[in-house]
Write a structure and sequence with these properties.
about 10% strand; elongated; alpha+beta; four-stranded antiparallel β-sheet; single chain; 5 helices; about 150 residues
Length: about 150
């Protein structure tokens, strides 16, 4: 039985694409392949650098809501304290995964409204005024970016 398998494997094995290649040509192809693989390895490093900046921006937004003393986070008509709001937003961010590439993606796709009801999230400030989380986060993001770009 094993001999039949070996025979079948040998018969179906693909032939090499290049059966006769000069030594210098093969070295050239190997060099090209090495350069290609090196470039392939560098791609995640550049994406990771951008991702770290965006992660910092998103973390700033979430921590800003967690630090709102006396405020309430309103989700689907129910009020939550700022710490619970931060936990909820972090959970949604984790579930969002690679779909959230920027802080703006986070605000628009995760932090602005309920994914189940479609209702906008709101923040009730200590003085009683209501603001949407979208407006709140865009204002905080503008402040953060201006502070980072200031000399």
């Amino acid at each position: 039985m094993l001999s039949v398998f070996c025979f079948a494997a040998c018969v179906t094995m693909p032939k090499p694409l290049v059966t006769h290649m000069h030594f210098s040509e093969s070295r050239y192809l190997i060099r090209k392949l090495r350069v290609f693989l090196l470039l392939l390895l560098l791609i995640p490093l550049t994406a990771h650098a951008r991702e770290a900046k965006e992660n910092a921006r998103i973390e700033h937004l979430i921590s800003s809501i967690e630090k709102l003393s006396g405020a309430k986070f309103i989700r689907n008509g129910t009020e939550y304290d700022p710490k619970k709001a931060g936990e909820h937003l972090r959970m949604k961010l984790e579930k969002g995964g690679d779909k959230v590439k920027t802080a703006e993606n986070f605000i628009d796709g995760i932090a602005a409204k309920s994914s189940t009801s479609g209702k906008s999230y709101q923040i009730r400030k200590p003085d009683g005024t209501l603001v949407t989380t979208s407006a709140y986060f865009y204002a905080r993001l503008k402040e953060y970016d201006q502070a980072k770009s200031a000399p």
